[in-house]
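Data availability (excerpt). The following record was deposited with the supplementary files.
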Amino acid sequence: MNVEKEVATFCEQYSKLRDEVGKVIVGHDEIVEGVLSAIFVGGHCLLEGVPGLGKTLLVRTLGQALTLDFSRIQFTPDLMPADIIGTDLVMESPDGRRYFEFRKGPLFAQILLADEINRATPKTQSALLEGMQEHRVTVGGKTYTLDEPFFVMATQNPIEQEGTYPLPEAQLDRFAFKLVVRYSSREDLNEILNRTTTPRNVDVSPIMDGEAIMRWQALVKEVLVAPPVQDFAVRIVLATHPDGQYAIEDVNRYVRYGSSPRGAQNMILGAKVKALLNNRYNVSFDDIRDVAPSALRHRLILNFEGEAEGKSTDDIIETILRQVPKETSE
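Predicted structure:
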């Protein structure tokens, strides 16, 4: 394999995909890059922000730019698990015999938009767990495999909003990245108005299919990580564990639970994507720093004192990145 050629081709295809999404989405460059990174690390992505910031539009546009089966579920309090996974129906054959036939739910897609996921009850939210982790579901004792590649792109409103249910920690941990969508700038908002309040039609063309995505996922895993850089990521994750050997003072004071090993895994994979986009075949310390917030913010659970003092997991991660040295003599 010609590594330089592969990296150049990946960067070219990535740029085309990003530009195609940019035909519809104004600004939010970090969010778009984060969602695309989740695609190329083979992970799921959670987007959080108040209503109306373009979260749903972003994922729908991405679905148009990828030649994948796309499905959307609008989560509501009365949504049931069978509405997502599917259910066995009693059917009758021409000769009068009855039998069960499984009718697939909207989960059986390659890119699933779980819109306002925290509007549904925890029971319904948990219906996604097996599919997100194992890429298969079990119904009536039978296992059904989901088509590859498979991604869940979920949106949620801030927990403080009325009528929302916090996602279970086990489900949060299944998301590779959590991205926080903030308000648009003055320039971006003017451009949004120019695009949406004038007669303009935008056609989004498909750029990449499932086979190409899996090809680039394989390339991402081939990127090299030097032992000191990998250990830096490990020490960042260990620093999130209260009362652990590497915990910093703010973690011991404000954090109840730290990151799982999935935080380190997704930090490394996300950093590999960063390296490729900078035409490098090796991960740097800065790549790790850049990816750490999106890979860890949903994996830290604050304690009562942290909540009472208005701390956020981003505050804790920022402090960790300042205090954890790049290299250690140990």
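Summary of structural features: The first helix runs from residue 3 to 22.
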